Amino acid sequence: MDLSSLSLAKNEIKEELKTADSLAAIENLRVKFLGKNGVLKRLTAELASLSVEDKKQVGLVINEIKQEVETGLALATEQLSTQHKADSLEDFVKTLPGKKPEIGHLHVTTQAIREIVEVFKPLGFTRVRHPEIDWEYYAFEALNIPATHPARDEWETFFIDAPVDPKMSRQVITPHTSNGQIREMLKGDLPIRMLNISRCGRRQSDISHNPTFFQFEGLVVDKGINISHLKGVLNYFAKNFYGPDRQIRLRPYDFRFTEPSFEIDISCGICGGVGCKLCKGGWLELGGAGMVHPNVLIAGGVDPTQYSGFAFGWGVERVYMMKSGTRIDDIRHLLGNDLKFLEQF
Ligand code: FA5
Taking burial as the number of CB atoms within 10 A of a residue's CB, which of 2, 8, 105, 322 is the most buried? Predict the structure, then answer.
């Protein structure tokens, strides 16, 4: 081994390092030059046979070669990773559609509530909120249903396990939104055109009943209010919510807090009022309504000799289910969290 053959080897190694175009090739070169049985190990071993003077000079060149190899390999590795990044950017096709993040939407009951509010808005009704847990007094007594009256049974009420108030009785999960009638009148702000939409609760669960559901309660109190106003407003609602060809009819009924009281029916959207499997007679029941009972006006602090009013209280979910096209065949779906069902709306 002499200096000239060494510098020849050094040049060859430099050239070879330039050919390292993959991680595998770099690793092969590292083993070839720096490995246990590599070129540099061999050259170092050969130093032993040289004179002291040659050892020094050749040793220096071997060290230079070693550094050259190490730097060359590091450089090749770095270049390769920069190239790799550039390649991955090239792979990124800007025109490919991105992944769409899943976006939720309002629950169908909330959509129904908003739609109902919009229908009543042009008639001057303002949405209000009253307690969803209230005293029995507002839910029954003030509505002309005394504690022992059998009509209370119909409201299958949930009672709150809390101290009883001597005047207000027990607390209940409001079984209807009619408590809002009294509370609205007690504000003392006449005339009234309120739309009270709240959650209600009853001990009921079947195809058309949920233990928790929403009602919307309309109340109009003013001077000279009569049944034709009630009929006009409900007819307006039916036509604007269900469609211009739908009709309503008033059927006599009995609510303790309205006199006279009515059940409001709407002509069936499937058969057009002729009679079919869904409606059995051409009409579907929408909900209750009536002229506010004088005792209720008095409980609300309103003088029945001066003022009169009408009220109606309907179920949001049931009213929405009757819209043709919704095809909701069981009210309990609306309380379940099945996305397959909810995403349809
Ligand atoms: C009432 O609750 C009266 N407060 C309505 C009223 C207000 C009459 C003002 C006169 C004047 P009713 O119990 O019929 O009435 O209930 C009204 C509506 O609430 C029903 O027609 C139905 O649409 C809805 N509803 C009642 N119970 C449930 C339930 N468990 N699940 C879903 N909807 C219900």
Answer: 322
Rounded Cα gap, residues 237 and 248, in angstroms: 10
Residue 84, pLDDT > 80, answer no
Q: Could you read off the pLDDT of 141-160 as tens digits, one per residue?
A: 999 999 999 999 999 999 99
Ligand 1 lining (C-beta closer than 6 Å): 176, 178, 202, 204, 209-210, 213, 215, 217, 255, 258, 287-290, 311-315, 317-318, 331
The lowest-confidence range among 60-64, 195-199, 317-321 is 60-64
pLDDT recorded at residue 128: 97
What's the CA-to-centroid distance between 124 and ligand 1, angstroms?
23
Q: Which residues contact 171 (CB under 8 A, 6 or more apart)?
A: 133, 134, 135, 136, 159, 160, 162
Query: What CATH homologous superfamily does 108-342 map to?
Result: Bira Bifunctional Protein; Domain 2 (3.30.930.10)
Mutate to test the pocket of ligand 1, among 213, 254, 316, 328 (most ligand atoms within 8 A of CB): 213
- Which residues in 255-289 are b (16+ Cβ under 10 Å) and which e? bbbbeebbbbbbbbbeeebeeeeebeebbbebbbb
Give CA–CA dist 335/90, Å, rounded.
Answer: 49
CA 257 to chain centre: 37
pLDDT band at 1 (very low <50, low <70, confident <90, very high): low
Give the whole-angstrom CA distance, residue 322 versus residue 286: 9
- Residue of the CA atom closest to atom 27 of ligand 1: 209
Domain boundaries, the chain: 3-94, 108-342
Tell me if 61 sits within 8 A of 6, measured CB to CB.
yes
Q: Count CB-CB contacts under 10 A for residue 191.
A: 12
Instruction: Tell me, in angstroms, the distance from the centre of ligand 1 to residue 126's CA.
Output: 20
